Amino acid sequence: MGKLLLLDIDGTLLNSHKKLPASAKEALLEARANGHELAIATGRGPFMLKKLADELNIDTYISYNGQYIVHQGEVLHKEALNSETLSTIVEFAEKRDHPVVFMTEEKMVSSIDYHPDIDESIKTLKYPHPRMIEDFHLKNDIYQALLFCEKEEEPPYKEKFTDMDFIRWHRVSCDIVPKGGTKARGIEKLIKKAGYSIEDTIAFGDGLNDVQMMATAGFSVSMGNGTEETKEQASYITDHVDNDGLAKAFRHIGLI
Predict the structure, then answer these.
(1) Contacts with 78 (C-beta within 8 Å, 6 or more apart), sequence order
(2) pTM of the entire structure?
(3) Is 59 labeled as catalytic in the residue annotation?
(4) Is 141 found in the same domain as 18?
(5) Catalytic residue among 8, 165, 175, 244
(6) Which NCBIfam families match (predicted)?
């Protein structure tokens, strides 16, 4: 039986210019032709992975770090954040001049008209500054929120909101997810449905939100550009994403 390949997007599938390297695309299509199944596992939302998923013809994904899971085009699991908890976080953040962005399966909306930290970090994903809509989180299902603050400003949030995880992905931004709401938990739900065992899974990643996924999967690969924590967790460390790292890993582990 083929393997289920769980692929992070930023820094793994996409290089530092947010492009899918030709070598990676070729390797992915060849691996699929060899009987392996491709799945995306990302902190991004469904609307932010659509273009890439369409290009690679992938219809299975764990998005928002496990909050929204789709298997072969069917929604398998979705878990919105508690709106009361979100309101308390927003209130706490506003006192510190830290904006929040709310994410549904279709879009992202800001708690504030404009903030340079939102602009800086969202631009790295090649998206414009989201627009503000009043009380958006009270009227919509929010699967992930982003908090904008620097690393040293994070501890008060972790102390106060013990039922949430704050996972840093940018100098000035963290994903807000329920405690333990990770790609790892998403894998467990997905393999049950897809009929794989954990031994049949291979995780590819580079960031802090990939560490638990890599610990859970049967085998794991860190990109050469990965964080120290990611590299420590990995079964194998490949080259940098900008240096054909993904294709090299596929060859090394015999997928192609």
Answers:
(1) 67, 68, 69, 105, 141, 143
(2) 0.91
(3) no
(4) no
(5) 8
(6) Cof-subfamily (TIGR00099), HAD-SF-IIB (TIGR01484)
